[in-house]
Design brief:
Elements: H1 2-19, H2 28-49, E1 57-59, E2 63-69, E3 76-83, E4 91-96, E5 101-104, E6 115-122, E7 128-138, E8 145-153
Parallel strand pairs: 2-8
Antiparallel strand pairs: 1-3, 3-6, 4-7, 5-6, 7-8
C-alpha cells in the first residue's frame, strides 16, 4: 500500500510539474528594447500634453544690461515685448536663475499686436559682476525664452569712522 501511495504521489508531482510554464529569461537586448519602447511612449505622451498656440513673444532685446552701477543702486529694469502672433499670449511662469534675480510679469493674456513688459529686480548689494538669466515659459509651445542679465556692481563706499590725521601748517612750540 505504501508503494502505491508513493508511486501515485510521484506521478502527481511529475504531472503538475509538466503543467507549469517555465519562467522566461530576458536577455540584455530584450531589456534595452523594452526601455526604448517605454521611452517612446513617454515622449508621445509629453508631445500630446504640450499646448501650442499661434501666440508669438517678440522681445526688443534678450539682454538686460545693468551696466556699471553703485552698490545698492536702482534694482529695477524692464524688458519690453510684443505679441506678434495671431492668438493671445499667456506667460505661464518666469523665474530667475537664483534668488537675487526676481521677475514680475503680466498675469492676464496679452492680445495679438499688444505690448507689455517684464520687470526684473536684481539685488544690487551683491558686489561684482552680474551674469544671471531669467527663463520665461509661455503658451507658445515647449520652448522657453531666456533673458540674460549682465552688468557690474561696484563695491560699497567705505565710510570713515575717524578722520585721518593730516599734516597741519600750524606748528606747536
Amino acid at each position: 500500500m505504501k508503494q502505491v501511495l508513493f508511486s501515485l504521489l510521484v506521478l502527481i508531482s511529475i504531472s503538475l510539474n509538466a503543467q507549469t510554464n517555465p519562467i522566461p529569461v530576458k536577455t540584455e537586448g530584450d531589456l534595452q528594447k523594452e526601455a526604448m519602447i517605454e521611452k517612446a511612449k513617454m515622449q508621445a505622451v509629453a508631445e500630446v500634453a504640450v499646448e501650442r498656440t499661434n501666440a508669438k513673444m517678440t522681445f526688443e532685446s534678450l539682454t538686460v544690461d545693468y551696466g556699471t552701477i553703485e552698490n545698492g543702486g536702482e534694482p529695477l529694469r524692464t524688458v519690453k515685448f510684443t505679441n506678434t502672433g495671431t492668438e493671445p499670449l499667456v506667460i505661464k511662469n518666469a523665474r530667475g536663475s537664483c534668488g537675487c534675480t526676481v521677475p514680475t510679469w503680466e498675469k492676464n493674456p496679452i492680445a495679438p499686436g499688444q505690448s507689455s513688459t517684464i520687470e526684473i529686480r536684481y539685488d544690487t548689494k551683491r558686489t561684482g559682476p552680474i551674469n544671471k538669466s531669467v527663463t520665461i515659459t509661455t503658451n507658445e509651445g515647449p520652448d522657453n525664452h531666456v533673458l540674460q542679465v549682465i552688468g557690474t556692481v561696484l563695491p560699497a563706499k567705505e565710510e570713515k569712522a575717524v578722520p585721518t590725521a593730516e599734516p597741519s601748517i600750524i606748528k606747536g612750540n
